[in-house]
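Bench log. Compound arrived from synthesis this morning; before running ITC I wanted a structural hypothesis for how DGJ sits in the protein. Inputs:
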Amino acid sequence: MGIIYKEKEQVFHLQTKNTSYIMKVVKGKYLAHVYWGKKINTPNMENAQLNRLIGFSATTDNEDKSYSLDFVCQEYPTGCGTDFRIPAISVLFEDGSRNLQLTYDSYKIIKGKPAIKGLPATYAENDAEADTLLITLMDTLQKVKVNLFYTAYRDLDVITRRVEIVNEGTGALTLEKVLSTNVDFETADYDFISLPGAWGRERHVERTSLRSGVQSVESRRGASSHQHNPFMALAAKGTDENQGEVYGFNFVYSGNFTAGVEVDQIFKARAYMGLNDYDFSWLLESGESFQAPEAVMVYSAKGFGDMSRTFHDLYRRHLVRGRFRDEVRPVLVNNWEGTYFDFTEEKILAIAKEAAGLGIELFVLDDGWFGKRNGDDCSLGDWYVNKEKLPGGISGLAEKINQFGMKFGLWFEPEMVSPDSDLYRKHPDWCIHVPGRMRTECRNQLVLDLSRPEVCDYIVDAVSQVLDSANIEYVKWDMNRHMTELGSAGLPVERQKEMAHRYMLGLYDVLERIVSSHPDVLFESCSGGGGRFDAGMLYYMPQTWTSDDTDAVERLSIQYGTSLAYPISTMGSHVSAVPNHQADRVTSIQMRGDVAMSGNFGYELDLTKLPVEEREIIRNQITQYKELRTFIQSGDMYRLASPFEGNHTAWMFISKDGNDIFAAYFQVLCEVNPGIHRMKFTALDPEAVYEVVEDGSRYYGDELMEIGLVVDCYGDFQSRTWRLKKV
Ligand code: DGJ
């Protein structure tokens, strides 16, 4: 395992537990991709087809006309020379030329995994967990160095890639495009899986056949977005949850991205992922370097379920940081859907007191506590408490809530400014804008220009002051609009197209500073729900508000899709009131509870308004979740029935030691005179006996998996759950 280099053949072989990733230097200069898939113990590589001429493709070398880059599976294509497919990089030189010709220069094997300065990335805690290969490519004429970093995790089937560009020439150059990964597959017999959506309908699973030309997902919104997630997978035909080959790609970045596949003239498939080149360029002076964010790549021969569990383990163990990586997450109540902006301290305390009595551990005060904010049309940027609403201030409120035995958490939206705010009146040029153009508002707000260090400092100070003024143990970090009229008053003309990426670097710097100076605060990110649900944000904040849509039926699809890449412990999931505020649907309290329990559980409603019987059900839900949460949050998830394929959804969670199981089954619409439905468990020990905790019945694992338990479900919007314990 690890990284093997065969000098004579110039073959690089990265091995994880079950996979191999192989590259070869051909003709002494081109870095070709040879293989990624199931582990090969000792490849001899003589059979690799690295060389063939195809009609109308130019040869790469006038001395040897048998060779064209248009055919070769490449590791980091430049589009220059003779490859007409999508390039991974584009560079403009001072002389106006764009021809970047990269050839192999050298390699280095590094123990462990070096961090990327200023960017989020997966990490190895010690040298035994991962090995990194650095391959350097060089444009010898223009003196541009391209460092390709590959990390292979030892006990997870994960390879991460990132790229560093170093300008070793004497003049400046402009990067017009820098992708983080490129994998050329020899065939295109795959399906393309992505997670598109919209506000309130995030990350629905879409699967289509690859076809000639380009298929892609991307964001040009200045955030990873609700509309497309920086995730894609290529799956062999027929791959399902439990079997089949799948290649998953995820980008550790929260801004504009692109990810896609180009199927070329001879049905090869080029998969790529990286920064979006839309409105992007980067001026790289002589001696400077540029870091592209990390792309995570997971291969599984055992279907989507195994791919997801690998992503989950990687993100829980090697992405999320701080004490909450290993701690169970508290059950919370958030007042947003309960009160919106219309609250007083008295009202908040009434909800909190009720919540404490039911066993809820954390109260979160959402939007509306600062400036003169009684609606969404003012005060973003003015992070001082509204004493009319909260006479005792945040500290007074936090103290009272602590006296109920609960923790206190607070909402912020630090990246934004309202035109009606003291901050905007003082610093009208601190928002993203183009001089002379309208500053288009969205939800009555503008985006602060985080490409400017002084704006970042302001945010760090303003948020820290509040956090340090009271016993605040949780923060919800919201972000409620995308970028328009891209421009920065802080950047020179030639760097205006750096704004969107500099914004992300500024944001990551702000988050690093705030999070590291408040290690005991649990941070949850949010962007109008799940508009920035990505691995970049998870590096700083271990959980994300999955969607503003709290309807239990809608949440089945959203949480199912989200789980393709992201672990359950990262998904905020709350029970809200009915009729649901987004979908106007009335679902049972049981179903709402069971859906929300398949995540970081909480409530988002005015508990004081509920009938006594419902509060008792809630008390039981909370007790039950506290018993289950350790393994729901840290165990393995198995998706058993998909909401995208029918009326029923099912999934189960099993503890890492295999002793505890929680399974949930959901029925959307009632079926009159239904057929027989069974809950068939998976991943059990066929020879072990399991007890169904609810009724004490006992079964061998093989029976539970092959015959299953009959599901008795009647009515619209119903759910059933089972708790199993290995005897
Ligand atoms: C959008 C979030 O997704 C909601 O949960 C809530 O916090 C509102 N913003 C508050 O403005």
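What the model suggests: The chain has a mean pLDDT of 96. The radius of gyration is 27 Å.
ITC booked for Thursday regardless.
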